[in-house]
Design a protein that fits this description.
Oligomer: heterodimer
Radius of gyration of chain B: 14 Å
Shape of chain B: globular
Strand content of chain B: over 45%
Strand content of chain A: over 45%
Helix content of chain B: under 10%
Distance between the termini of chain A: 37 Å
Distance between the termini of chain B: 41 Å
Number of strands of chain A: 11
Number of helices of chain B: 0
Largest interface: A-B, 29 and 24 residues
Number of strands of chain B: 11
Shape of chain A: globular
Largest sheet of chain A: 7 strands, mixed
Largest sheet of chain B: 6 strands, mixed
Order of helices and strands of chain B: EEEEEEEEEEE
Structural class of chain A: mainly beta
Chain lengths: 112, 113
């Protein structure tokens, strides 16, 4: 049973470009979460999704950030017009129910 | 606002020592508390605690929850260099359902040979 998959593992973008981060949850998991870890800070919740639904996006910046979890395919976190402050590690986690969350290896985004 | 505070923020010990990591929390509707180990990649799940006073154990690691005093501890006995990592404590927020986690800043543990 493969774990949570994220790609790419490393992503470099110039200011103003778009970043697309992908997450495939563990088999049988219908809950997906995105977290951001800034340098020297803890993990911060961004958004919680189930298939085709955003359940809680209270941690997501109001502008430039969006997330989806389509019926088919991975969950996508999209950052438009990236700025240097978006440089961080973005982790995806999945859960089968209301219990523990299992994390993917993360995508390290660097904005030049 | 939910809050999770971990202490110490960093700790350096020698191999073979025993360490105790602390996590205190304030959350509106407590359901569980989780511990994770983070090396240079994904946080790895260690324990989920829901009931006071019941110790969870996995090898040299153990953890216990005190819901009256709102804290948990993670113990590691006979530490090894492979235990060096950031240990994260987290609680689910909001009122129910599968919610996001509020994390503490972590304890950076370094085990010296």
């Amino acid at each position: 049973n493969a774990g949570v998959m994220q790609n790419p593992r490393h992503l470099v973008r110039r200011r103003g470009q778009e970043a697309r981060l992908r997450c495939s949850p563990m088999k049988g998991h219908s809950h997906v979460y995105w977290y951001r870890q800034l340098p020297e800070e803890g993990l911060k919740f961004m958004v919680y999704l189930q298939k085709e639904n955003i359940i809680d996006e209270s941690g997501m910046p109001k502008e430039r950030f969006s997330a989806e979890f389509p019926k088919e395919g991975p969950s996508i976190l999209r950052i438009q017009q990236v700025v240097r402050g978006d440089s961080a590690a973005y982790f995806c986690a999945s859960s089968p129910d209301y219990n523990e969350q299992f994390f993917g290896p993360g995508t390290r985004l660097t904005v030049l | 606002e939910d809050k999770v505070v971990q202490s110490p923020l960093s700790l350096v010990v020698h191999e073979g020592d025993t360490v105790t990591l602390n996590c205190s929390y304030e959350v509106t509707n407590f359901r569980s508390l989780l511990w994770y180990k983070q090396e240079k990649k994904a946080p790895t799940f260690l324990f989920m605690l829901t009931s006071s006073g019941i110790e969870k154990k996995s090898g040299r690691l153990s953890s216990i929850l005190d819901k009256k005093e709102l804290f948990s501890i993670l113990n590691i006995t006979a530490t090894q260099t492979g235990d060096s990592a950031i240990y994260l404590c987290a609680v689910p927020f909001s009122g129910g359902g599968a919610d996001g986690l509020t994390f503490g800043k972590g304890t950076h543990l370094i085990i010296q040979p």
